[in-house]
């Protein structure tokens, strides 16, 4: 491996690189062109194969028997891998949908699936539109400047998903802080303590304590919300285990709003960066559907998932041994020059737009329809009312290797 390629692989194992597009994207472009399946061996992570081409990632996702989620569904330091495995072996570790494989994954997924189907989305749309209007009105009230991430983008999807769960509004700040600590373990601003494995476990324990109490309450008195559906869900007539129940809450309550926050704030950032596209969208609101997909591609909130080979195989001619870990670089796939014409151009009318920001195959994001609807409602409310907008300071991205996006977006604007 030449020095430039080896240097490019270090980017994938560096959380701060995801906070610096000028480092991240050139490295990924180099790997796509010269080493699309690259061996990465950098502490504190165990080695893995990085897959950076769109077609290869789809092929891995499609073959969910050859490439499974367990035991390493996401990139963590080796110490974290060991602790999580010990906990799961003891039946006390976090085990969300992203950790599971079929058939258990399929059965657990069904419990919440109806809440995200088209009929449920239609029923929810009035409420989502109302909340979109509320937060655009809030922008007008607090203007002419604000930090869009902390004052708007965080709160709007948080309110939607936790309302869907049926959680009391006074608990929303607690869920926000725990989510930021869980996904922000590599970020100096958001991590708890020193961001160690022990700190992460303490965050998860706080989640478990809260959701164990919620489960008990919903089993005693079901209230017709998503939390009740999860608490009283069954597989083959048997209730979910306590760990699976709590883990279900964690993935819905945290990823269900944090990724949408990243996509909304990343989308607004792009509209400011590309004022011609903002003008184009304002002049033709029928483009909102394609604009939302482009915002999601542009932001790609989930940076990666990992898979483990269950047998000897190969990817793009590169031998992959049984037990090897494979890193699916979604950020890279969504800039693949073979799939997207002029991939570094933000285009609100891009069609087709076969981005992989929601994953692919059996693990396709359960809440994708809700995220799309939230973004469509918000920008449909914002764009026609937006008279002017510009940056009022330097945008800042989170350091992460998993889920993240803008943590600060200072803007100056005028809204009708």
From TrEMBL:
Cofactor annotation: heme
Membrane-spanning residues: none
Keywords attached to this entry: Cholesterol metabolism, Heme, Iron, Lipid degradation, Lipid metabolism, Metal-binding, Monooxygenase, Oxidoreductase, Steroid metabolism, Sterol metabolism
Pathway(s) it belongs to: Steroid metabolism; cholesterol degradation
InterPro entries: Cyt_P450, Cyt_P450_B, Cyt_P450_CS, Cyt_P450_sf
Recorded superkingdom: Bacteria
GO molecular function annotations of the record: cholest-4-en-3-one 26-monooxygenase activity; heme binding; iron ion binding; steroid hydroxylase activity
Gene3D superfamilies, per the entry: Cytochrome P450
Entry-linked CDD domains: CYP142-like
Biological process (GO), any one: cholesterol catabolic process
Family: Belongs to the cytochrome P450 family.
Record's protein name: Steroid C26-monooxygenase
Species per Swiss-Prot/TrEMBL record: Mycolicibacterium poriferae
Taxon lineage: Bacteria, Bacillati, Actinomycetota, Actinomycetes, Mycobacteriales
């Amino acid at each position: 491996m030449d020095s430039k390629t080896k240097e490019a692989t270090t980017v994938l194992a560096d959380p701060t690189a995801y906070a610096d597009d000028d480092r991240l994207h050139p490295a990924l472009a180099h790997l796509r062109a010269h080493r699309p399946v690259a061996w990465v061996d950098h502490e504190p992570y165990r080695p893995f194969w990085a897959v950076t081409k769109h077609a290869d990632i789809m092929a891995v996702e499609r073959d969910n028997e050859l490439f499974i989620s367990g035991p390493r569904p996401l990139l963590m330091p080796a110490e974290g891998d060991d602790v999580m495995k010990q906990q799961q072996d003891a039946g006390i570790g976090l085990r969300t949908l992203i950790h599971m494989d079929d058939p258990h994954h399929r059965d657990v997924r069904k419990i919440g699936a109806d809440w995200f189907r088209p009929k449920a989305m239609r029923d929810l749309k009035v409420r989502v539109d109302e909340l979109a209007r509320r937060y655009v009105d809030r922008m007008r009230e607090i203007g002419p400047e604000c930090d869009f991430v902390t004052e708007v983008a965080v709160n709007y999807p948080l309110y939607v998903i936790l309302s869907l769960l049926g959680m009391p509004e006074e608990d929303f700040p607690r869920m926000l802080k725990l989510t930021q600590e869980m996904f922000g373990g590599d970020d100096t601003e958001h991590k708890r303590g020193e961001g160690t494995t022990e700190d992460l476990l303490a965050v998860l324990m706080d989640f478990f304590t809260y959701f164990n109490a919620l489960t008990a309450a919903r089993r005693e008195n079901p209230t017709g919300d998503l939390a009740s559906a999860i608490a009283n869900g069954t597989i083959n007539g048997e209730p979910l285990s306590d760990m699976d129940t709590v883990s279900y809450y964690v993935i819905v309550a945290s990823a269900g709003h944090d990724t949408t926050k990243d996509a909304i704030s990343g989308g607004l950032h792009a509209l400011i960066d590309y004022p011609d596209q903002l003008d184009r969208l304002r002049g033709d609101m029928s483009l909102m559907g394609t604009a939302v997909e482009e915002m999601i591609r542009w932001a790609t909130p989930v940076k990666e998932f990992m898979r483990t080979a269950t047998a000897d195989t190969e990817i793009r001619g590169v031998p992959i041994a049984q037990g090897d870990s494979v890193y699916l670089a979604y950020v890279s796939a969504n800039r693949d020059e073979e799939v997207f014409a002029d991939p570094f151009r933000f285009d609100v009318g891009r069609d087709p737009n076969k981005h992989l920001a929601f994953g692919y195959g059996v693990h396709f994001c359960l809440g994708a329809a809700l995220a799309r609807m939230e973004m469509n409602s918000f920008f449909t409310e914002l764009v026609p009312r937006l008279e002017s907008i510009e940056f009022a300071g330097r945008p800042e991205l989170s350091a992460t290797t998993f889920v993240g996006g803008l943590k600060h977006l200072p803007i100056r604007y005028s809204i009708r």
